[in-house]
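We modelled the chain as a single entity of 93 amino acids. Its sequence is:
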Amino acid sequence: MSNPAPRRNWFFALLIPASVLFVATALAVAVMPALENQAMDAGAAVPPSAFRTALREDGVWWLLGEVIVVVGLSIAAMVFDDRGTSSQIPPTT
């Protein structure tokens, strides 16, 4: 009697890029203003950028949305994970 292969849980596969996007956005929100200030203090003219402006104005909201997505995918991955079901745990005596 062979055990069937466990089904794939695609929420884990979706969780990885969502987490990487969250980390990249968090680093951008934290580092970009410091780099701009450092360039201005050095006397360099920082060219205007629509991305930096949007990041400065809405970056916190992007992070909040990404946190909601990461938490939702994490919960879904745990709920639909078949490998940890109680039917596979042997009874104790």
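As a brief sanity check on the tokenised model: The mean pLDDT is 86. Residues 59 and 69 are 15 Å apart (CA to CA).
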